[in-house]
Structure formats: structure tokens, C-alpha cells
Amino acid sequence: MMSGDEELTAAQREELDREARAKEKAEQDALPYRWRQTLQDVDVTLPLPKGVRGKDLVVVFKQKYIKIALKSNAAEPLLEGELCNNIKIEDSTWLIDGGELLIHLEKVNKAEWWKNVVTHHPAIDTTKIVPENSKLDDLDGETRAMVEKMMYDQRQKAMGLPTSDDQQKMRVLERFKEQHPEMDFSNAKIA
């Protein structure tokens, strides 16, 4: 029996992807800030009320928490919540430029895409992220191999297919079966 995804035509799958991208874009556009990320960091741009200066702000960075508020109205922050993942507090910064607060958050885990900035905001589909080729080319061989493996595994999972680690386990098991034909694996439950 075919699963629901297998019954979809390429055109239907493309239409569903287009609808999902449009919904995600609308959710992200509705946020009070814009954000972008690399594997190393997250940059957030938050518009500020006219005339706000650095001394007018309360900016709090904790390992997995952020709060941005006006001192005059600290009870209603401009941005607050649990971060998607841990940051390096000492390497995270902020500055005001042209009426916007520019926030730079340095990731602790440099091998993972964030789904959102703060966990209570709408998530993005990280399996659809395509890093800029020039950035991928700038990585050293070992890091690049790890990122490419990660991207491959994310695509495999999204399609319900085995990851590279699962494929390796299956190859080892098949070799073992070939080396031990006397063993009966018909009732074996292998996770």
C-alpha cells in the first residue's frame, strides 16, 4: 500500500511546497523583526521607535534567553523569550544603526540550523535551507563534510528515507549476515 506522499504527483507535491513556503513567509513577515542565520550565528534586525538610543534600552542576553525592552516600558518588551538554542553570551552583541537594533547572536552549536529565534514564534522548515555556496566553500574539509552529511541526512529524513548512519548500519548487518549464513535472522527485531 502506498503512503499519502507517494500518491501525490510531482505537480501536487510542488503545489504543497509552494503553499508551505508562502505560509512560512507570511508567518515570518508578521514577526516584529527580521532575521537570518548561518551555521555560526543568527542576526536579528529589530525596528525601534524614533529617537531611541542605546541608553534607552534594556538588553539581556543569557545562554538561552533574550530580552529587549525600552527602559520606559520594561514590562512590555520588544522581544523576549527562550532562544531556539544556546548562544555564546560573550560573543553576542548589539548596536543601533539607522533606527534599528542590530543583534548578533553567536551560536554554541555551529552544526545546527535554528527553526526560530525565540521558541514561541513560528518555526521555519530547516530542511529547505540551502547555505550560500561561497560560505560552504569557505569551510575546511572536515567541517564541510560534516555540513554536507547533515544536509543529506535532513533531506533523507524529510523524505522518510534512511540517514547515512542508518545506511551504514544496514551495510554492516548485511555483511554480518553474509559472513554467518548459519544464523537465522528471520525473526530478529533490529532497531
UniProtKB/TrEMBL annotation:
Region feature (Disordered): 1-27
Biased composition (Basic and acidic residues): 12-27
Pfam families: CS
Name the UniProt record assigns to this protein: CS domain-containing protein
InterPro entries: CS_dom (IPR007052), HSP20-like_chaperone (IPR008978), NudC_fam (IPR037898)
Keywords: Cytoplasm
Occurrences of domain CS (ranges): 28-118
UniProt-listed PROSITE patterns: CS
Localization: Cytoplasm
Lineage of producing organism: Eukaryota, Fungi, Fungi incertae sedis, Chytridiomycota, Chytridiomycota incertae sedis
